[in-house]
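Trying the structure run again after the queue cleared.
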Amino acid sequence: MNSTIVISVFATGIALMTPVLWAALGEAIAERAGVLNIGIEGVMLFGALVCAWAIREGAGIWTGLLLAIPVGAVLGLALAYLWVSRGADQIVSGIIGATSLLFDEFLKGVGVVTSLDEISIPLLSDIPWIGEIVFQQPSVTYLALLAAPLVFLLLNRTWFGLYIRSAGEKPRATETAGLSVPALRYTAVVVSCVLICFGGASLIAITSGGFVTNVTAGQGFVALAIVVLGRWNPFLIVGGALLFGVSQALQFQAQSLGFLSSLPPEAWLSLPYLVTIVAVVVAKSSRYPNACGVPFTPAGAAR
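Done. Tokens:
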């Protein structure tokens, strides 16, 4: 495998990891607060749908990306109501199916084929290997890489992050300290869904600009696995997302990989998911926050 192929695989992999990285960062926030957002795939689909609709209507890619933010907030409020206020089972009450109906209603037919251009960072993009791989990416990829340290600082270096983590570990003690666990979880779920929805929109923005049914192809569930693989640490989550992205990028260089080029297309399509599963299995055990997925009833309240 020559250097050109290596550079191409890693550069493409970094771009392809963008949607799942946004989704995994959002999921990490929700799980830290004690909410297992199993509806991550559906939220990503809504983000992809609204971005594709904005492009189809001529509003542009960035309008579609920005529209994903309020859409994610609304979905977050709806899911938080089910999970936090109503105590619904977080495993079975995720969002599914609705995007197919909306697609049939508003986006049937051929859309506009477009995507975000790559942006070369002056001077940095001229660095051999690293510059070509990291510093010639779409803008949403740079934003995702910037979001990782920001989420880390939010969760580990702020009072808000401390409150969020306490709501996921010891919610009753958090309430005793005078904090509102439902309010903290509402906030975490809304922020989580905004990032996840933006991730779904970024999938459209960096590919074709069009929406098809199940366009996320299970990336939401991959994000769930990457959060566990990364142990809720945003920096390790970047590594997990990169592993998925590079595995996905290999299919575009399949014909240049010697004897591996004889593998059927289905094998290359399944490779990123198999690699993610194996990575989670062989990684050291991870512990979910103590109260993750467990409904919380405030003292004196009745369901």
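The mean pLDDT is 86. Worth checking whether this holds up in the mutant runs.
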